[in-house]
Design a protein that fits this description.
The protein is α/β, with parallel strands linked by helices. The protein has helices at 13-23, 41-50, 60-67, 97-105, 114-128, 150-159, 179-186, 221-232, 282-297; strands at residues 3-8, 28-31, 53-56, 74-77, 89-90, 108-110, 139-145, 168-169, 193-199, 205-212, 238-240, 261-267, 271-278. It folds into two domains: 3-112 and 284-297, Rossmann fold; 114-280, Dihydrodipicolinate Reductase, domain 2 (2-Layer Sandwich). It is built from nine helices and 13 strands. Strands 8-9-7-10-13-12-11 form a seven-stranded mixed beta sheet. A six-stranded parallel beta sheet has the order 2-1-3-4-6-5, sandwiched between helices. The longest helix has 16 residues, at 282-297. It is globular.
Length: 307
């Protein structure tokens, strides 16, 4: 029997990506709302009541209101609204067996943010493995393609390409919306410094966390690499380059159109940089949402994903 899915906010970047992924599957029935009724609460609720699972691809305030309409369906919220809410499951299955089990049983799930995915994929295992302390002072730099800014930013880059060729740092107040979930999920005692940068390529993400040897409890760069490799070796979508990289370059768009994430350790034993690279629209958004849907509805975890 096909599982019924409704995407509330299908016209947005993430909603469209989820629609495209699910529309080609023979085990999913997409419930489509009439375009003129897409903001009609009664019409939306009718489809929500029919659905097995609802994706919320809405701004934060709209997502909060939409939850009130849903009575029986499972929910995956792609917004920031519920990511640090204790009543919601955080959808990052690779962090531990316990995370995956909670996702499988989840009624309400918050899909991780794109930048957050990169930072958490690095800091969370390092803390759990005892390589770094949760009381430490940490920073992260994250470079993203402009699709991460949604429809308005995409239009700006298409219309003003000549004027937007330089990388642009944003979140200058150090209050970026992904910081709270990074701190909560990693159980950090001190709020990290986070520097997001958008550039003139469509999609791709590169998130880096620098560490001094004084922060790593005596672990060398290669030992950290080995530990991360072992931590993620049984996961399907996250991989770790097995050797410390000291030459060449790391391209941000290497994993565009993929739903995988690769971690690379570079530097030396005094100064180490750990980098996660992935597609901000893939493992950073719609790919992760479909992965979580698969787990919540009993499908194979990677069904419909680009690996």
């Amino acid at each position: 029997m096909k599982r019924k899915i409704f995407i509330d906010g299908q016209e947005g970047t993430t909603g469209l990506q989820i629609f495209d992924r699910l529309s080609v599957r023979d085990d999913i029935e997409l419930l489509i709302i009439d375009e003129v009724k897409r903001k009609d609460p009664d019409a939306r609720k009718t489809l929500m009541d029919e659905a097995d699972l609802v994706f919320l691809c809405l701004p934060d305030h709209a997502a909060i209101e939409a939850v009130k309409l849903i009575e029986t369906a499972k929910i995956i919220d792609a917004s920031t609204a519920h990511r640090i809410n204790e009543d919601w499951v955080y959808g990052f299955s690779e962090l531990s067996d316990q995370h995956k089990e909670r996702i499988i049983k989840a009624k309400k799930l918050a899909n991780p943010g794109c930048h957050s995915t990169g930072v958490i994929s690095i800091l969370y295992p390092l803390i759990k493995l005892g390589i770094i302390s949760k009381e430490g002072l940490y920073s992260a730099i994250s470079l993203t393609g402009y699709s991460g800014g949604g429809k308005k930013m995409i239009a700006d880059y298409k219309e003003n390409a000549e004027n937007l060729m330089s990388p642009r740092q944003y979140g200058l107040s150090q209050n970026h919306k992904h910081i709270p979930e990074i701190q909560k999920i990693c159980d950090l005692a001190v709020t990290p410094i986070f520097i997001p940068i958008v550039d003139d390529f469509y999609k791709g993400m590169q998130t880096s966390v620098p560490l001094h040897k004084e922060q790593t409890n005596g672990f060398t760069a290669q030992q950290i690499c080995d530990q991360l490799y072992d931590y993620y070796k049984n996961t399907k979508l996250i991989s770790v380059n097995p050797k410390v990289q000291t030459e060449g370059m790391l391209a941000t768009d290497t994993f565009k159109s993929k739903d995988t994430l690769e971690i690379t350790v570079s530097g030396n034993d005094d100064r180490i940089v750990i980098t996660a690279r992935f597609d901000n629209l893939g493992k950073g958004a719609s790919g992760a949402a479909v992965q979580n849907m698969n787990l919540m509805l009993g499908f194979d975890e990677t069904k419909g994903l680009n690996i």
